[in-house]
Design brief:
The chain is an alpha+beta fold. It has helices at 25-40, 45-50, 122-125, 127-136; strands at residues 4-9, 53-54, 57-64, 73-83, 87-96, 101-113, 119-120. It contains 4 helices and 7 strands; from the N terminus they run βααββββββαα. Strands 1, 2, 3, 4, 5, 6 and 7 form a 7-stranded antiparallel β-sheet that branches. The longest helix is centred in the N-terminal third of the chain and has 16 residues, at 25-40. It is elongated. InterPro entries: 4-hydroxybenzoyl-CoA_TE (IPR050563), HotDog_dom_sf (IPR029069), YbgC/YbaW (IPR006684).
Length: 146
């Protein structure tokens, strides 16, 4: 399993009146982590868009564990949790600099044609990308792929 890491400097504008990171900003950080993972693997989401495809979010789930605050650094860890014919699920951990878990999340995506929004198989349009996701997707504790 390949895990990508991206450090985020928490800006004042990302916090709420209580001085903690506003919950919706985690979604932005997940996107930053996902983009970093894709780039680490040698692909680009921008390139996908240039080719006429999009990868919209179809589901997202976040569990908040420990607040992050302005002036701290967050580390976003991202991996491919599951990958199938049409759907890819990414897994995430957002950590404090000391490794404390601040949040964990998953997001599910499909690839669609930009002009019709009809789903397409990533295996057909980007066989190398599909193969890489199959190679790195998470394995269960018994070694069997999820």
């Amino acid at each position: 399993m390949h895990i990508s890491e991206k450090e985020i400097e928490i800006r004042y504008a990302e916090t709420d009146q209580m001085g903690v990171v506003y919950h919706a900003n985690y979604i932005i950080w997940l996107e930053i982590g996902r983009t970093k993972l894709i780039e680490d693997l040698g692909f680009t989401y921008a390139g996908m868009e240039e080719d006429g495809y999009l990868s919209p979010v179809t589901d997202i789930s976040i569990q908040y564990k420990a607040a992050l605050r302005y002036g701290q650094k967050a580390i976003v860890r991202t991996w491919v949790e599951d990958h199938g014919r049409l759907r890819t699920t990414y897994g995430y951990e957002v950590l404090h600099a000391d490794g404390t878990l601040a949040a964990k999340a998953t997001s599910e995506h499909v690839v669609v044609k930009k002009d019709t929004f009809r789903p397409v198989s990533i295996q057909k349009i980007y066989p190398e990308w599909h193969a890489k996701y199959e190679e790195i997707k998470r394995k269960s504790p018994d070694g069997v792929r999820n």
